[in-house]
Amino acid sequence: MAIEDDEKKGQHGTDIASTASADIVPIDISEHGTMKRALKPRHSQMIALGGCVGTGLFVGTGATLALGGPAFLLIAFMVLIFLVYIIVTAIVEMVAYLPVGGASLSYYGTRYVSKSLGFAMGWLYVYSLGILVPYEITAGALVIDYWDSPVNVAVWITIFMVLIVSLNLLPVEYYGESEFWFSTIKVFTIIGLLILSLVLFWGGGPKQSGILGFHYWKDPGAINTWLVDGAGGRLVAFVRTLVLSAFPFTFSPELLIATSGEMQNPRKDLGKAANRFVLRLIVFYLGTVLAIGIICPSDDKDLVSSGSNAKASAFVVGIKHAGIHGLGSVVNAAILTTAWSAGNAYLYMSSRALYALAISGQAPKIFLRCTNRGVPYAAVLACSSFGVLAYLNCASSSSTVFTWFVNITNTSAFISWVCCCIVYLRFRSAYNTQGKPELPYHSWTQPYGAWFALFFFIILTLINGFNVFFPRQLSASSFFTAYIGIPAFMVTYAGHKLLKGRSDPLWITSDEINIWEGLEVIH
């Protein structure tokens, strides 16, 4: 089975096997089957927006609000939205120039920098995105406790695992359609909560006796201190708020690229999806943190005492303060849908990253196997094995396990974004050196924005777990989960370099980077 016939490839893009160069060693995939381009623009746009809107936005922001206060939370999200915008525009410019079916960003790392970097990036995506699957599965199981369910949490974890894996084994058009509707539910939930927050702002709640306004910015206050007092404590609180606020954004730019391999017209659709994606981040993400800062006091004990369940959601706490009965259950149901949807998206991304590695000869050939409808079932089943980590919650505190997942994921996301900047800058260097071919998409922020983001995310990677160095804050598990991603990535890179890439340069020179091969197929 082929992705498209030659004529259709000319319209929609090319596949990874047809863009082989000296830097890529593709495998013959004809005997295994290939993925299909079956995602429509509305699918890819909503998946990129809603797919990664997980419990981090609805629940995780509550704990971050308690730590930093509403002003620091809002500022942190503004900074991160701008940085994510830079990442999105950089990688979309690069991928829209040469969209490759079945490829993740690791493919471009191989093509534009080195095989060792591409190898390390690919496995980074496989394990870090795979870890997010049990995170969301656990979240979905735990929010059910809002209704004080007598059923053991392990049962709910199993149900969620079966549902997520089953959906990912269906043809991609079913996945795309289901994610479209899941994301639509989440978007309308956010819109409804924003409208509710506006009503509460003007004092429309049953228990409110006047205009609420920015009352909670005055009492308990707009900013908090953390670990130490005074100006130093405010600085520490802001830095920690900035680090934790990155979690809702993790791998959302990469998800937009992951769907490009199955877009019907990626050269055209990617640019549109990128612009709309960033606009929706501003409206929904920034609107959400502004809303919770208005309706929820940052010193409410439920924000931190409940750990990692729906009772810790700032929206649920705000609804309780307003005296609205029954609405908390509705929000909880939306959070449940959110966890399921995000788990679907992360398994989708992890399996496609593994499939891309197998195509490039950097993972066992067994992961190339696809159904006759184009589903890489071997990769899906392998990546779904990460889901068993969700059962850690049966033995340890859920809040502790959640903290481990957040630390590991943040480090991986920061490393990924650093690599994205490096790969893009090498692409731009080759682009400038080799005659500046026409780009189907370009942003005003590039290439200087990539340099800024590169520096910023290197810093965030190094300070991800900085709090463990404060007195009485040292924890072996916190330190390990916050920083294990750095040596893991370096060992993966160095191992490939020593075993497979001794004769390869550290990076391909600008005049030797192949930015032309494959263009003849899509023009």
From TrEMBL:
It holds the Pfam family AA_permease. It is found in: Membrane. Residues 43-502 form the Amino acid permease/ SLC12A domain. The chain crosses the membrane at residues 46-67, 73-100, 112-133, 153-172, 184-204, 235-257, 277-295, 375-392, 404-427, 448-470, 476-495. Signal peptide: none annotated. Gene3D superfamilies: Amino acid/polyamine transporter I (1.20.1740.10). One of its GO terms (molecular function) is amino acid transmembrane transporter activity. Keywords: Membrane, Transmembrane, Transmembrane helix, Transport. InterPro entries: AA-permease/SLC12A_dom (IPR004841), APC_YAT (IPR050524). One of its GO terms (cellular component) is membrane. It is a multi-pass membrane protein. PANTHER family: AMINO ACID PERMEASE (PTHR43341), PROLINE TRANSPORTER (EUROFUNG) (PTHR43341:SF38). This is Amino acid permease/ SLC12A domain-containing protein. It comes from Penicillium nalgiovense.
